[in-house]
Amino acid sequence: MIVRPPANWLRMLFVWDGSVLKTIVPQLLLMLAVSVLAVATGGRVFGARIPLDTVPFPLVGVSLAIFLAFRNNAAYARYVEARQIWGRILIAARALTSQVINYLPEDGDGFERKLFVQRLIAFVYALTHQLRGTDPCADLARYLSKDEVEELRGMHYVPVALLDRIRLMLARAGRKRGEGEPLLWILDAQVSELAAAVGGCERISHTPIPFAYSVLLHRTVYLYCFMLPFGLVADLGMATPLVCVFVAYTLFALEAIAQEISEPFGTDPNCLALNAMTRNIERSLLEQCGEEMPQMLEPCDRYKVL
């Protein structure tokens, strides 16, 4: 995720890190070559002039802009929903930790509050790794025993397994204390909220925008841009490459942005900063317990954090 201080209008014109320009430079260079070819040949291919005029291009351009707006809105909706889900994870984890501290204090009855919080933090790290398809064992080993890490290693849904263990700890503590069902319902509601968050993240991760939309949009954008120089060369002449590259930059960039934010749990520059959010939850829970907190993840590599 790109984290930047506010920039003035002039600096924004020349921003490189954080924009998608670096990812579409090859396409823009290809577009420039096609435009120069159209100017050099006078809009002819193999000696025959392509009978294109400028009338159809505004009509197609408007339709293409509407389609791109639909794709970007759909992608941004996924991004916003993913961020809201992680906000709920933070709220539920804080609430559950506070409830355990106040309703189930350690008094020698066998409930290990420290282990409970460690498993809760491990759950957050396990979810991050599951969404990014990475190995969680290194982070889990900081909070769980070696035997427990080995038990979780072969599981496909590690966050769910940790929630089951957290729920079991609460159930045993509640029954042993004779607190009754109301307290267990209160505690279980937060665990269920975390489980719902896992399901919400899996829904976004496993249900991409339909592939047919991406294919149609990709083909249409490239076909439109490659035909554009041959339709404009008769009217614009030497200015054709400049105009065509600018139009292509707008369309290619919109497509690239939609592609990045449609997968909010990835590691592209404009995806969610899951590592930073996970560390923030970890720090918050440890502070609630009076434990030493790790350092915050600071933006690095020109304001980028993961």
Describe how the helices and strands are arranged.
Elements: H1 9-13, H2 21-40, E1 44-45, E2 48-49, H3 56-103, H4 113-132, H5 137-140, H6 146-153, H7 158-177, H8 181-206, H9 211-236, H10 240-261, H11 274-288
Antiparallel strand pairs: 1-2
Helix pairs in contact: 2-9, 2-10, 3-4, 3-8, 3-9, 3-10, 3-11, 4-7, 4-11, 7-8, 9-10
Verbal overview:
The chain has 306 residues and is mostly helical. The chain has helices at residues 9-13, 21-40, 56-103, 113-132, 137-140, 146-153, 158-177, 181-206, 211-236, 240-261, 274-288; strands spanning 44-45, 48-49. A two-stranded antiparallel sheet has the order 1-2. Strand 1 and strand 2 form a beta hairpin. The mean pLDDT is 86.
Mean pLDDT: 86
Based on Cα principal axes, name the global outline: elongated
What's the total count of β strands?
A: 2
Q: Strands of the largest sheet, in order across it?
A: 1-2
Helix content: 55-70%
Rg result:
27 Å
Name the quaternary structure.
Answer: single chain
Helix and strand sequence: HHEEHHHHHHHHH
Number of helices: 11
Termini separation: 6 Å
Overall structural class, as computed from helix and strand content, comes to: mainly alpha
**Low-pLDDT windows of residues:** none
Biggest sheet, in brief? 2 strands, antiparallel
Strand content: under 5%
Salient structural properties:
mainly alpha, 11 helices, 306 residues, two-stranded antiparallel sheet, elongated, 2 strands
Give me a quick take on this structure.
With 306 residues, the chain is mainly α. It contains 11 helices and 2 strands. A two-stranded antiparallel ribbon has the order 1-2.
